[in-house]
Design a protein that fits this description.
The complex is a heterotrimer of chains A (358), B (374) and C (516). Chain B is built from 11 helices and 14 strands. Chain B is an alpha/beta fold and 374 residues long. Chain B has 2 domains: 60-168 and 307-330, Response regulator (Rossmann fold), CATH 3.40.50; 170-303 and 344-361, 3-Layer(aba) Sandwich (Rossmann fold). In chain B, the strands form 3 sheets. A 6-stranded parallel β-sheet of chain B has the order 2-1-3-4-5-13, sandwiched between helices. In chain B, strands 7-6-8-9-12-14 form a 6-stranded mixed β-sheet, with helices on both faces. In chain B, strands 10-11 form a two-stranded antiparallel sheet. In chain B, strand 8 (249-253), helix 9 (257-271) and strand 9 (278-281) form a beta-alpha-beta unit. With 516 residues, chain C is α/β, with parallel strands linked by helices. Chain C has 2 domains: 6-240, P-loop containing nucleotide triphosphate hydrolases (Rossmann fold, 3-Layer(aba) Sandwich), CATH 3.40.50; 245-336 and 460-516, 3-Layer(aba) Sandwich (Rossmann fold). In chain C, helix 14 (407-420) packs parallel to helix 15. The chains are: A mainly alpha (358), B alpha/beta (374), C alpha/beta (516). Chains in contact: A-B, A-C. Chain A: One of its GO terms (molecular function) is transmembrane transporter activity. Chain A: It is found in: Cell membrane. Chain A: Keywords: Cell membrane, Membrane, Sugar transport, Transmembrane, Transmembrane helix, Transport.
């Protein structure tokens, strides 16, 4: 769908450069504070890749990020900033656990499907509210989704305390709502990596198909790029706003189901919104809205997230360093203008530079 | 173009490596210094000339290794996790343990709990503590899979064989806070700000209410929950409403939410220094938070000896073996919880002292729960 | 004009972008005190050439001399120091700042770190008086007219000490009166010793104001001529590279039944006032109805209401016998409407999307382009290729983004898309705005061709020439009303001018045509 090979190359180089610069920035900062960056990065990498368990956990974290990243991305493509991914994830989590607890004896395939469907529905509704308000009343989706985040948080906590749970947590869902796959758990030495990763891969593929091959995806892209021309061409802005928000929330909700059923198997009171929601935004930005890109940046973030745990004891570096590296990477993605500028400079220096005419 | 980019990439990569290498030489020394200097100095003065720790003083005790997994608050939360970690550091100093004999694993999200336990597990620690009731499930999951490993759980009771539970009768300290509040209030109205509803904070609420009622059951207790342990803004809002409605002593058991309570009290005093309002702190002595130009408005703080409990449990294990499956409850009698004198009037402090004695000798039985679990 | 010194010499300038030569061995010299026009079609390489003069680009080969000295203009600052200033087509002004603040921006006079506004205001006033620019230095830019904003841009270059001013398509945004004022300002500037390069594709402006003219075609300099000795026709032929006709050849119209009927239509602007007031007219198959009028008299709102982009407050619109009042744009389009919108960047195209996607923008959901909700890119591509060929859209490929095309080719793509759907009724709003003569000629031909095929065509334009050349009947709008409908063959420019100014009524009644 990209116009030219050169664009394609640039689109790949920007995130790679950003990651690199982010790692360098982190290294410089560690040096400035008297830590050894080599030891630190080595601790992270050998920590995660040195053991199937932690690799599995990194992939598990990546699974959730893929969903939230895709969810954020589709709304972004349509021109909306869905900052409420975290809240949509949480309602999806709640819905999946609720269904799983309500029908513990259903056959596994059926129960898992129902739980996931409930989560998608809940997430879609949660985002759809913001979409509908935006479409019909022009309300800022940023503000509405932020408010809905807190609504989700407190509603979930209320439900746990008063309806679903015993104290601060619900019971574990039954084996029939379990997402783990025996051989995968075994392969990763008992990590919580689950069938979600395969669902994520399928969803990445479906997302790509939707955006590039379907008329609905075409409309979403067109409305996002130029709402005026899209209206002129007979597309309904209202419909596309709501559709993209529904899909966005549905994906986040699906992530919530995988998180709830796969990572935890229950629901507990939260003191804040799940970080996977906000990291999803970062993942989408690093992936530049490309589903494959999002998948790979999810893996990077998963590795950073799990690897961070090895910093304090493996290298004597505070694990916040990983957050700084993450933040720096996002900064450099955001500042991709600078990166493009330098890449163009490099190109211009060469007489054989390839550039579009005009 | 590809070649050029490749070249640049490799140059950058090389730069990182070189920078890293330069750093590493002078790095390790600083690293060690900052983290270890206290004990190394002690080692140096304590047993000169020893280069082999294992063979030095109390043999077995120094080989013992302990670790903790924080909850989402992190190790520098100025409260619960921090005092647990301080306890470990104290232990390390006491027994002359090396740097690798105690460690913390920080959780930034609830999804990190289990991987953190597994990390600690891989490092071969003798006891791994989970700090806070939020970690109960994670501890139990990991403990069941590793029946030969010893675990500890703070603030919640687990019946798993290889887990020792360390709980606190927070209600007893809160009871004393209630006594202090009742003896201090002039408006006949006091407030309680809870974090997230649940068994732990309920102990605080119950104890506090009982303590107030013990002195004068006509005093009204305004109970509000923030549904958060982190959002100081909500704490400030709640405190504002309480003070406006006439409460003059507010006790918070809400972690960082409590910072908002302190902020609100300070604002009120600074705009009208004639106000007679107080805050009661939680978990550690929060007197410093109550400083303002006209004095100090922290009436007292309830203290929770998480660090001490961990030290005790660890030493107990070293000396007598691991008390698996047991619950060690720390109350006033065990010095596990307490209140400080703070800015209490003589009369209030006297009443608190009396009440403490009565709780310890069993004359007063402080209720634990009002909250009913399904 | 005799042998005066050369302030600018560009010798054998070549600029390559990859394999593409935007400028190919171009020669240009500008003498002191002259207005030198640079004429060329859109995409001929005028902007590239001027960007090298103003330091935004550096030439691949060739030499630039300023005042006889070899120079290398590596950045805009260097150009500035050499006394070269550019008046951009799109103004670069801060709306919330005053005229003076905009002019001194980046070169503020200050005393002890405080901006010295009085001195600056005085300096600006002096400059303005000297060149007859009549600008109020203290007014906020957002409160002054577009013509005045342009003069602020001119002052900006003068304030920075420019002796050589480059005007990039300066008249595109101006009213006829403002154009006249600009012309006299330019004459005043050269009489004060400045030199001017005027980039344009408007021949009458060149005839009016320029001394010499260099013509560029497809990156090559064709010739430099003395304007007084060259006719407009010769200039146009040189620019396009073939003989161009200014008048549209057309057979007499054969109007048939009415395709579009508008009855008592009133349209409210979002701010609440009536932009279109009780308008009635019809467009017949086989005719071009022109809508003339000064910008802002309700033409845009009228078209928005017909095309469904705006709600009408009252009245009825019928297309092919179907009531389309306040229907959704897609329903109206499917009822037989083709629409070349006034603002092609805002409404006509999704610029970042590819050309083929833009060509399918109206039909992507129909077979064969879409099948059970899936796009058939194979069909879209072959359809796009066909239209690109048929309508001579110049693009490297159909998968280049629409934004990479020149204005004329973008417009061609829109026309291709709209006409190829074979609509019974075609609206062309300002279809040639910003385009060069070659493209204008092409578009006019296509519109008349539609008429001859028996389609109804509604042409809205602010250019009188265009309206008079292409239309069969002309409806004049003034203050939201159609105040007259005249026969294009019988009316004169004077009469239309009067009508557009809202002056005459009795004349309009003399004409007997369908409208109110």
């Amino acid at each position: 769908m990209l116009t030219m090979n050169k664009d394609r190359l640039n689109n790949l180089l920007v995130p790679i450069f950003s990651i690199f610069l982010g790692l360098i920035f982190g290294a410089l900062l560690m040096l400035a504070f008297g830590f050894n960056p080599i030891t630190a990065y080595n601790a992270m990498i050998s920590g995660v890749f040195g053991s199937p368990y932690f690799l599995g956990e990194a992939l598990r974290a990546a699974t959730i990020l893929t969903f939230t990243g895709l969810g954020f991305s589709i709304a972004f493509k349509a021109g909306f900033f869905n900052i409420g991914v975290a809240g949509q994830l949480l309602v999806g989590w709640t819905a999946s656990i609720w269904v799983a607890l309500a029908f513990p004896d259903l056959p596994r395939l059926m129960l898992v499907t129902m739980s996931i469907a409930a989560a998608i529905f809940a997430g879609a509704v949660w985002a759809g509210v913001a979409g509908a308000l935006r479409a019909y009343f022009g309300t800022s989706e940023v503000i509405v989704t932020i408010m809905l985040n807190y609504t989700a948080l407190h509603l979930t906590n209320y439900l746990i305390l008063n309806v679903l749970g015993t104290g601060n947590t619900t019971e574990r869902v039954s084996e029939n709502a379990n997402l783990s796959i025996g051989w995968l758990t075994e392969l990763t030495a008992g990590s919580r990596l689950n069938v979600g990763i395969f669902i994520a891969m399928v969803v990445v593929f479906l997302y790509w198909i939707f955006m590039t091959k379907t008329t609905a995806g075409f409309e979403v892209r067109a409305v996002g790029l130029n709402p005026h021309a899209s209206t002129y061409a007979g597309m309904s802005a209202t419909k596309n706003i709501i559709l993209s928000m529904l899909i966005s929330g549905g994906l986040a909700g699906l992530g919530g189901a995988i998180h709830g059923l796969g990572t935890f198997g229950n629901l507990f009171t939260q003191s804040g919104l799940p970080t996977a929601g906000f990291n999803g935004i970062a993942v989408a930005l690093l992936g530049l809205g490309n589903p494959i890109g999002i998948f790979f940046s999810s893996i990077l973030f998963g590795v950073l997230e799990i690897g961070a745990g090895f910093l304090p004891n493996g290298a004597g570096v505070p694990d916040e360093m990983a957050s700084i590296v993450t933040a720096a990477i996002i900064f450099f993605v955001g500042a991709n203008y600078i990166i493009r500028f330098f890449m163009n400079k490099l190109n211009n220096k060469k007489t054989q530079a390839v550039q579009e005419g005009e | 173009m590809k070649n050029k980019l490749l070249l640049i990439l490799s140059v950058l990569f090389a730069a990182v490596l070189v920078l890293g290498a330069c750093g590493s030489t002078d790095d390790e020394s600083t690293d060690d210094q900052t983290d270890q200097d206290t004990e190394q100095n002690e080692d140096a003065t304590g047993d000169e000339g020893t280069d082999d720790e294992d063979s030095s003083d109390e043999g077995a005790s120094t080989e013992f290794k302990i670790a903790m997994v924080t909850d989402e608050g992190g190790v520098d939360d100025r409260s619960f996790n921090q005092s647990a970690w301080e306890g470990m550091q104290t232990w390390g100093e006491e027994v002359g343990a090396g740097d690798d004999q105690y460690a913390y694993y920080q959780s930034n999200d609830s999804a990190d709990f289990i991987p953190n336990f597994n990390q600690a597990l891989a490092e071969g620690y003798d006891i791994i503590y989970g700090i806070g009731y939020l970690l109960q499930e994670a501890v139990e999951d990991v403990a069941k899979l590793n029946p030969d490993q010893h675990f500890g759980l703070v603030d919640s009771v687990s019946d798993v064989e290889n887990v020792i539970s360390l709980t606190f009768r927070d209600n007893e300290a809160a009871f004393l806070a209630g006594v202090a509040a009742a003896h201090t209030t002039e408006s006949g109205k006091v407030g309680f700000v809870g974090g997230q509803k649940g068994a732990v904070i309920d102990r605080f609420q119950t104890g506090f209410e009982a303590g107030v009622a013990h002195v004068d059951d006509s005093i009204e207790v305004d109970v509000q929950y923030a549904n958060s342990f982190a959002d100081a803004g909500i704490g400030q809002q709640i405190a504002a409403a309480m003070y406006t409605n006439g409460a003059d002593v507010v006790y918070h058991a809400a972690g960082a939410v409590g910072n908002g309570v302190f902020t609100e009290a300070r604002n009120r005093l600074e705009s009208d220094p004639d106000n007679q309002i107080w805050v009661i702190g939680v978990d550690r002595d929060q007197e410093a938070e109550g400083d303002w130009e006209g004095g100090n408005f922290t009436l007292t703080s309830t203290i929770k000896g998480v660090g001490d409990a961990i030290v005790n449990a660890t030493n107990l294990t070293i000396e007598e073996g691991f008390p698996g499956g047991e619950n060690i409850a720390y109350g006033l009698a065990e010095d596990g919880v307490d209140v400080v004198r703070g800015n209490m009037s003589d009369e209030a402090w006297e009443a608190v002292e009396t009440a403490r004695a009565e709780v310890v000798d069993g004359t007063i039985e402080v209720p634990e729960f009002t909250y009913t679990e399904q | 004009m005799v042998q005066s010194e050369k302030v600018i010499e560009m010798i054998g300038i070549t600029k390559k972008f990859g394999e593409f030569k935007a400028n190919d061995n171009i020669h240009l010299d500008v003498k002191k005190g002259e207005i030198h026009a640079l004429l060329g079609e859109n995409g001929a390489g005028k902007s590239t050439l001027m960007n090298m003069l103003s330091g935004l680009l550096t030439p691949t080969s060739g030499q630039i001399r300023v005042n006889g000295q070899d120079v290398s203009i590596s950045s805009p600052n260097v150009a500035n120091d050499l006394g070269i200033g550019m008046v951009h087509q799109h103004f670069m002004l801060v709306e919330k700042f005053s005229v003076t603040e905009n002019i001194v921006l980046g070169k503020e006079e200050h005393r002890f770190g405080f901006m010295d506004k009085d001195t600056a205001n005085k300096q600006v006033q002096e400059l303005s008086d000297r060149y007859g620019l009549s600008v109020d230095p203290k007014k906020l830019v957002e409160n002054i007219t577009v013509g005045m904003q342009q003069r602020v841009e001119i002052l900006k270059t003068l304030y920075r000490g420019a002796d050589i001013l480059i005007f990039d398509e300066p008249t595109g945004v101006l009213t006829p009166q403002e154009i006249q004022e600009l012309m006299s300002i330019m004459r005043k500037l050269v009489s004060e010793g400045k030199s001017i390069i005027l980039i344009t594709h408007k021949l009458d402006e060149i005839k009016q104001v320029a001394d010499r003219c260099t013509v560029i075609r497809r990156g090559k300099s064709i010739d430099t001529v003395n304007v007084r000795e060259t006719s407009q026709q010769e200039l146009a032929d040189m620019m396009v590279g073939r003989s161009v006709s200014f008048t549209v050849d057309k057979k007499p119209a054969e109007p048939k039944e009415a395709v579009l009927k508008v009855e008592n239509l009133t349209v409210k602007e979002s701010r609440g006032y009536d932009a279109v007031k009780n308008v009635s007219f019809e467009v017949k198959a086989g005719e071009v109805l022109g809508i003339a009028g000064v910008d802002g008299n309700g033409q845009s709102q009228l078209i928005s209401a017909i095309t469904g982009l705006m709600k009408s407050a009252s009245g009825k619109i019928t297309l092919n016998g179907k009531n389309i009042t306040n229907k959704k744009p897609r329903m109206i389009t499917e009822s037989g409407l083709g629409h070349i919108p006034e603002d092609r960047h805002k409404f006509g195209l999704v610029l970042p999307m590819t050309l083929e996607e833009n060509i399918a923008l109206q039909t992507y959901y129909q077979k064969p382009f879409s099948n059970h909700g899936f796009l058939n890119y194979k069909e879209i591509k072959s359809y796009a290729k066909k239209l690109i060929e048929e309508f001579d859209v110049r693009t490297p490929s159909e998968v280049h983004s629409a934004s990479s095309l020149s204005g004329g080719n973008q417009q061609k793509a829109i026309i291709a898309r709209e006409i190829a759907r074979d609509p019974d009724f075609l609206i062309a709003a300002q279809p040639t705005r910003g385009l060069d003569v070659g493209a204008i000629e092409y578009i006019h031909k296509r519109l008349v061709e539609q008429r001859d095929k028996g389609r109804a065509v509604l042409l809205m334009s602010y250019e009188l020439d265009e309206i008079m050349n292409v239309s069969d009947r002309i409806a004049v709008m003034y203050d939201g009303r159609i105040i007259a409908v005249v026969d294009a063959k019988e009316t004169t420019e004077q009469e239309l001018g009067l009508l557009m100014a809202g002056v005459d009524k009795n004349r309009a009644s003399a004409e007997t045509v369908t409208a109110e």
